[in-house]
């Protein structure tokens, strides 16, 4: 048994990170402290001032460990890394960890390209964004292509370089063909500068000049050119309309605020780029009642900016803890000064209040949707229970599938639906260990034995330690098991359950000749479901989800195998170089296409390593 009193006495008066664990050794919370001894002791003292979440967490702490650091900033960095690694259930975890799209202009090239990317690198290029509305980004890109003839190809084109034949885009006036030497670097740069001005919101001069050109063309009776210029003006206005000017500072800023009710919190963040609101996002933080606003915002900032590519110059919040420490951490990540501010009056304060009103409205919508979904899900589960003649509602449903492609890398997956909704945190993947080849029945038998045997072991451990069931991952058994297959798969599941002395009803989800969900098999009888019924939609969703989850795992394993086999076969390319190549180019295909010059742009790649890569992919003669 873990001796808390003895361990608490050993805690040092130094900064560091602490990890709380449950009886199964799983990390359930990660925190950082300026003085470890003071912070960790607080959890085991009087619980009067603890929030409900902290009280629930303390009940499940079976042990803790700590890591001493030299400074508080080191502790903060380590805390963020450990939260990413373990995803502890009692930390604030943002479910919507998006990498927002940016518009990138490769100003580090002689003849820059423009395209959409979700990755920011310190490569000398210009980035605009991030944009939350993905469709608006691509629409803006299409408008820019219509207005400005700029290349989008992936060729490496240098001034006075080799001349090649222009592609179709040149012939339809979408590119000025620098590859064929039909435009100078200076003239091309003027076009790029105009695009940058448009994306910066400085398009009034361009529009004014276009209007003058249009009027001149009309006077000269060149109506075709006048119409062309008119369409350009309309397109430019559309680009401008996608962004609303809110401030006069033209800075990159984020505004964060929240609203809470008796149970949950909604955090809203507005993105302001170059003085314009370019988008917003909200995050629902459930079961955060009693949490201090400053604590929630501080934790949100660590989680959000720990996983996002772009950090603005200024961040505005209503309240916060550890402001200097967070500013120091964000400044390190950004590479330039970042400030977190609490506005007291003026436009910034007003905008922050608007963010709060939006958070409040979103929270109300969230609650309403929950009530509507809850009623629909309950009705669907009642209908399903009636169809299967179950005594109780199947509130927890587990579905299983096996995936293999041409008999290689068989994998299994388990998805979980609780009260009609997917519970992603309980999804599990299984790499088949004991079965050779494409044997779906034996593979299914293996994963079911592993899942329910582990569950029984957890139940035993929890009973011995008198803990709550939530302390384990596998110990909560389903009310219904759905197999993505027919009688054969059902019989395998029943066989495993009988062997382990577990009584759970098992259904099979069957598809028709067109691979659409047709109905269920239960107690050796096929049950047809009404095509547009809620139950049919629900079963189809589960079947699609378990299949998707199995296929995605299979592909990830296959991709890892491909990356491993190809890159490790190249002489002079070790683990560090493999990692940097993939980080730089993103895929094997892009590495294959890379030029000698592009390979040497990576610090760790010398001439010998670059030649090895070119030799391996059969390009050495071309480059040399």
Layout of SSEs?
Elements: H1 4-10, E1 16-21, E2 27-33, H2 36-43, H3 52-59, E3 63-68, H4 72-86, E4 102-105, E5 114-117, E6 126-128, H5 134-147, H6 168-171, H7 185-199, H8 204-219, H9 223-241, E7 244-245, E8 253-260, E9 265-273, E10 276-285, H10 293-307, E11 314-316, H11 323-334, E12 339-341, H12 346-388, E13 396-405, E14 408-418, E15 421-422, E16 428-431, H13 440-465, E17 480-483, H14 487-499, E18 506-511, E19 517-522, E20 525-528, H15 534-567, H16 575-585, H17 588-593, H18 596-600, H19 607-616, H20 620-623
Parallel strand pairs: 8-11, 11-12, 13-17, 17-18
Antiparallel strand pairs: 1-2, 1-3, 4-5, 4-6, 7-10, 8-9, 9-10, 13-14, 14-15, 14-16, 18-19, 19-20
Helix pairs in contact: 4-11, 5-9, 8-9, 13-14
Structural features:
single chain; 624 residues; alpha+beta; GIY-YIG endonuclease; Nucleotidyltransferase, domain 5; 5 domains; 8-stranded mixed β-sheet; 6-stranded mixed β-sheet; 20 strands; disordered C terminus
Describe this structure as you would to a colleague.
- By secondary structure, the protein is an alpha+beta fold.
- The protein folds into five domains: 4-86, 3-Layer(aba) Sandwich (GIY-YIG endonuclease); 136-242, no CATH class; 253-364, Nucleotidyltransferase, domain 5 (2-Layer Sandwich), CATH 3.30.420; 396-559, UvrC, RNAse H endonuclease domain (Nucleotidyltransferase, domain 5, 2-Layer Sandwich); 568-623, 5' to 3' exonuclease, C-terminal subdomain (DNA polymerase, domain 1), CATH 1.10.150.
- Helices cover 46% and strands 18% of the residues.
- It has 20 helices and 20 strands.
- The protein has helices at 4-10, 36-43, 52-59, 72-86, 134-147, 168-171, 185-199, 204-219, 223-241, 293-307, 323-334, 346-388, 440-465, 487-499, 534-567, 575-585, 588-593, 596-600, 607-616, 620-623; strands at residues 16-21, 27-33, 63-68, 102-105, 114-117, 126-128, 244-245, 253-260, 265-273, 276-285, 314-316, 339-341, 396-405, 408-418, 421-422, 428-431, 480-483, 506-511, 517-522, 525-528.
- Strands 13, 14, 15, 16, 17, 18, 19 and 20 form an eight-stranded mixed sheet that branches. The chain has a six-stranded mixed sheet with strand order 7-10-9-8-11-12, with helices on both faces.
- Helix 5 runs antiparallel to helix 9.
- The longest helix is centred in the middle third of the chain and has 43 residues, at 346-388.
- It is globular.
- The model is unreliable at 242-248 and 620-624 (pLDDT under 50).
- This is UvrABC system protein C.
- Residues 13-92 form the GIY-YIG domain.
């Amino acid at each position: 048994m873990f001796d808390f009193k003895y361990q608490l006495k050993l805690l040092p008066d130094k900064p560091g990170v602490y990890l709380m664990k449950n009886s199964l050794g799983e990390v359930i919370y990660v925190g950082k402290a300026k003085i470890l001894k003071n912070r960790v002791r607080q959890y085991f003292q009087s619980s009067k001032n603890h929030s409900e979440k902290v009280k629930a967490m303390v009940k499940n702490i079976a042990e803790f460990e700590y890591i001493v650091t030299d400074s508080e900033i080191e502790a903060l960095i380590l805390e963020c890394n450990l939260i990413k690694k373990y995803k502890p259930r009692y930390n604030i975890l943002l479910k919507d960890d998006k990498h927002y799209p940016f518009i990138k202009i490769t100003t580090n090239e002689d003849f820059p390209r423009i395209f959409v990317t979700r990755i920011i690198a310190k490569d000398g290029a210009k980035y605009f964004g991030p944009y939350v509305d993905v469709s608006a980004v691509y629409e803006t890109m299409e408008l820019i292509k219509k207005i400005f003839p700029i290349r989008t190809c992936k060729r490496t084109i240098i001034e006075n370089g080799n001349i090649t034949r222009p592609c179709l885009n040149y012939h339809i006036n979408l590119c000025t063909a620098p590859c064929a030497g039909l435009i100078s670097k200076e003239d091309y740069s003027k076009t790029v500068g105009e695009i940058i001005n448009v994306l910066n919101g400085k398009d009034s001069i361009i529009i004014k000049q276009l209007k003058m050109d249009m009027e001149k063309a009309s006077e000269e009776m060149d109506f075709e050119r006048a119409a062309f210029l008119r369409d350009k003006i309309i397109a430019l206005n559309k680009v401008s309309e996608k962004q609303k000017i809110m401030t006069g500072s033209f800075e990159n800023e984020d505004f964060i605020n929240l609203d809470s009710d008796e149970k949950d919190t909604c955090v809203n963040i507005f993105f302001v780029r170059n003085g314009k609101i370019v988008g917003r996002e909200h995050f629902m933080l459930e079961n955060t009642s009693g949490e201090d606003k400053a604590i929630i915002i501080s934790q949100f900032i660590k989680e959000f900016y720990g996983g996002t590519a772009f950090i603005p110059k200024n961040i505005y919040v209503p309240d916060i803890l550890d402001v200097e420490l967070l500013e120091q951490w964000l400044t390190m990540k950004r590479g330039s000064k970042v400030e977190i501010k609490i506005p007291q009056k003026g436009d910034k304060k007003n905008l922050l209040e608007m963010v709060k009103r939006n958070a409040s409205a979103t929270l109300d919508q969230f609650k309403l949707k929950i009530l509507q979904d809850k009623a629909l899900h309950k009705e669907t589960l009642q209908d399903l229970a009636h169809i299967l003649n179950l005594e109780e509602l199947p509130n927890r449903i587990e579905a299983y599938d096996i995936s293999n492609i041409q008999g290689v890398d068989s994998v299994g997956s388990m998805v979980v639906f609780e009260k009609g909704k997917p519970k992603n945190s309980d999804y599990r993947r299984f790499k088949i260990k004991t079965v050779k080849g494409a044997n779906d029945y034996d593979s299914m038998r293996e994963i079911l034995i592993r899942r329910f045997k582990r569950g029984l072991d957890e139940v035993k451990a929890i009973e011995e330690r008198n803990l709550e069931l939530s302390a384990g991952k596998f110990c909560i058994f389903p009310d219904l098991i759905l197999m993505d297959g027919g009688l054969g798969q059902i019989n395998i599941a029943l066989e495993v359950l009988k062997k382990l002395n577990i009584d759970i009803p098992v259904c099979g989800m069957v598809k028709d000749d067109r691979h659409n969900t047709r109905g269920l098999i239960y107690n050796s009888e096929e049950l047809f479901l009404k095509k547009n019924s809620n139950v049919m939609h629900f079963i189809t969703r589960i079947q699609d989800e378990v299949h998707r989850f199995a296929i995605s795992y299979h592909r990830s394993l296959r991709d890892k195998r491909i990356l491993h086999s190809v890159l490790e076969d190249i002489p002079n390319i070790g683990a560090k170089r493999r990692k940097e190549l993939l980080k730089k180019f993103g895929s094997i295909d892009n590495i294959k296409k890379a030029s000698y010059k592009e390979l040497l742009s990576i610090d760790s790649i010398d001439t010998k390593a670059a030649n090895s890569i070119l030799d391996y992919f059969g390009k050495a003669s071309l480059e040399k």
